[in-house]
Structure formats: C-alpha cells, structure tokens
DNA sequence: TAGATTGTTAATCGATTAACAATC
DNA sequence: TAGATTGTTAATCGATTAACAATC
C-alpha cells in the first residue's frame, strides 16, 4: 500500500495552527477545541479536525485537544522538533533585520552564517554575526551541511545567488527578493514579498 | 444579473503574474504567452489563461499577450494603477527595513508615516521619516485618510495596535507579527511570518 | 497559407462542509 | 448520566486541467 500523500494546502495550515497553539499555551491554557482554534486562525472547526486527522487521533471526544500534546505532535510532523541551521544571504536592511530577528527561537530555526558580496560589509558585525564574503559561501554552506537559506539580496542578483545556494546543497529557500525564481525539482521555495501581499488586498479596496 | 465574484485564489495569483511581467518587460520583451508566463511563475498555461479570462480578453490567438497592455490591465484590476499611502507601525529592525525599502516604488505603495511608542525612538529619523509618537497615531491616520498599514510591532502588542489601526480607519493590514490577529469583517489582513514560511518547507526535508 | 496560441467548454480532480455515530 | 466534542463519512462545492474551435 502506498503512503498517503498529504495535500500541500494542509501542510501550509499546520504552521499557523502551531503558532496559535503556542500563543494560547503561553497564556496558560491547557486544552482547546477545534471550534476555538478555528476561530483564532480563521478556519472552520471541521477543517481543523480533518487536517489533524490526517496524522493521527490527537483529541478526545467531549474535551478537545490537550495543547501541549498537540504542539508536540505538530512540531514532530513539521520537523521543527529539532533546530535547523539557516544562512542569510544579503546584508542590506532586510538581511540585517532577519539576522537580528529574535522570532526564530523555539520555532525550529537558528541563523548560523550571514553573507554579502560588498567589500565594505565583509567582516563587519551584524548582531552576533560577522558578515562573510559571498565568494566563500558555496564551500562554507556545503561543509556545514546547511539545508535552509533566506535570500535577501536585490532582485537583480537573486537568481544567480539562488543557483549558488542550490549548488551548495541548500534544499529550502525563503526568498525575499521580489522576483520569481527557478530552482531544480527537489529544492523548496517560499516567497515573502510585501508588495505582493499588499496587492492581494487592494483589489478589494476602493 | 449578479456580478460574477472572482475567487480569492485567483486574485492571489495576479500580483505574481504582474511581478513576472514587469520583470520580462524590464528586459525589453514586448510579448509573451501563457506558456512562457506559466513557466516563470510555476503555474500551468491553462490556468494563466483561465485566470486572465475572468477579467476580459487580453491576448491574441497566435501571438499571445502584449506585455505592456497586460501590465496595465493587471495594475487596473489590482487597483495599483494609483499610489496607496501606507503607514508602518513599530520601528524595530523590521520596521526600519520596511521604512527604507525601495521595492514599493512602481508597485502601488508609498510609505508616508512611521510610528513607535518608545520615547527613545520618537522624533528620531529613519530614512526620510521622523518617527512619530504612537499616541497620535489614530488621529493622524484618520486625518490623512490612510487605508493601508504594515504592522511590525512585537507579537505581544500586535492585537492592540491592530485594534487602533481599525479604529483609525485602516482597511488593509500587512502583519509581520508572528501571531493570528482578529479584525472586523471588512478589514483585510495578510501575514508575513518567516518562521511559518520556513515551517511549510521543513515538512518535506529529512 | 500554415503555425501558433488564445478563450472557453466539459471533464476531472481535489478540497471543504455538513452531519452524526462514537465516546470521553 | 448529560453534555460536549471528536474523527470520519458522504455530499457539496470549487478549482484545475485537457482539449479544441476560433482566429490572429
């Protein structure tokens, strides 16, 4: 029997559930329901239950879900029950902000190296990091076995840097450059583009 | 006859098409096809054609789409054939980066005010802006008639600032705080959370 | 003309919702 | 026990794809 393939759209919702669960957990709540969680994240209760049921039976009839337990399960499913080393490439304002961002702690990621190709920036400090020369990037990433990268270079450089990241063995790229990238099959890609985010809303404004 | 309601999932793809079209336009190309555009953005040619056909007939059999014309149409549809004034709230590293970001030019947005509640930051300059006191925010936004906001405050403050933005008349919020927000019906919301973006990929890694 | 590519229809595929027996 | 809420099934709804006549 073939393994059941979980739809990507469901995987996309799990991090949102996890984030919301962490939030109510931090407020000391022990238990929640599909109803309550659904209201928090803007999804129907039926969908929450359906999504979670793809991975097991995590709730109890009558009482709902134990938050700590469900958080553990989601962390396991999303493979963030470990810490992924991440590189940041491009030390402009955005790369700077990302390198110093405290929000990765406890969410499964840790920035370990940052790069730029600007001689004026190389060897400068950003937060706790020393900016390294992009020319040593491929080798350094490869040697450290890093699989996850955040790309914060200008759009004009993004594709060629992405190619280098792939060459270095990176398997997941979070792209902040406002441009569609091409990567080989097997390399994952997510986009963060504020203009695109805003344009998804202006359609509905007048 | 009721106006046809365009599915939200289609609206979400249009900014990506627009971004790609701008890119090939900048390279001097005049014309493209659903095939070519689809390959650039990772969507089937049939879907590109279907999406665009919701809004009119923008192509020509045999020759495809005139890029300049299609760009104009998409800008019109997405209502970015004008410039939307935007406020940024929260002048930490991320707000700083956003306030100085050059990528909004020509994409329909212009940052016009930035706020923080930290007395040490108020009246300091960030790029071309002077950071204003969050206590005057509601009034200032209301008086300026601003409809679009970017929220870059800590998660712990995000909901209460969002409430103030709604009170001030903001209709679209791009939220960088890693937390699900509650806003009234009629207020639009998009999320930018790097951890969530990364967690959507780690599921597929090993 | 011949070749290319659109816009659209119908078929397929997939995702969401409603409903409820099971059970805590 | 009575009330609440799960996990799951079947029904509905919506989105994607394949195919092709129209036509540039």
General description of the model:
The structure is a homodimer. With about 210 residues, chain A is of the alpha/beta class. Chain A is about 40% helix and about 20% strand. Chain A is built from eight helices and eleven strands. A six-stranded parallel beta sheet of chain A has the order 8-5-4-9-10-11, sandwiched between helices. In chain A, helix 5 (about 95-100) links the parallel strand 4 and strand 5. In chain A, helix 1 (about 10-25) runs antiparallel to helix 4 and helix 2 packs across helix 3. The longest helix of chain A is centred in the N-terminal third of the chain and has 19 residues, at about 10-25. Chain A starts with 7 loop residues before the first helix and ends with a helix. Chains A and B meet through helix 1, helix 5 and helix 8 of A and helix 1, helix 5 and helix 8 of B. Chain A binds a DNA duplex (24 and 24 nucleotides) through helix 3 and strand 2.
């Amino acid at each position: 029997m073939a393994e059941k393939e979980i739809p990507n759209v469901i995987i996309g919702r799990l991090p949102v559930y996890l984030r919301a669960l962490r939030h109510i957990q931090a407020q000391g709540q022990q238990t929640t329901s599909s109803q309550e969680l659904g209201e928090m994240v803007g999804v129907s209760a039926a969908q929450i239950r359906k999504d979670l049921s793809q991975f097991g039976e995590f709730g109890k009839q009558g009482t709902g879900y134990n938050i700590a337990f469900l958080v553990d399960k989601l962390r396991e499913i999303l493979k963030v029950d470990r810490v992924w080393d991440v590189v940041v490439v491009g030390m402009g304002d955005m790369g700077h902000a990302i390198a110093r961002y405290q929000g990765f702690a406890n969410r499964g990621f840790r920035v370990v190296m940052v790069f730029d190709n600007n001689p004026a920036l190389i060897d400068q400090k950003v937060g706790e990091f020393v900016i390294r020369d992009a020319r040593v990037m491929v080798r350094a990433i490869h040697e450290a076995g890093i699989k996850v990268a955040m790309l914060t270079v200008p759009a004009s450089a993004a594709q060629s840097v992405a190619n280098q990241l792939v060459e270095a063995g990176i398997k997941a790229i979070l792209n902040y450059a406002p441009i569609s990238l091409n990567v080989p099959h097997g390399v994952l890609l997510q986009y963060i583009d504020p203009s695109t985010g805003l344009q998804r809303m202006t359609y509905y404004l007048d």
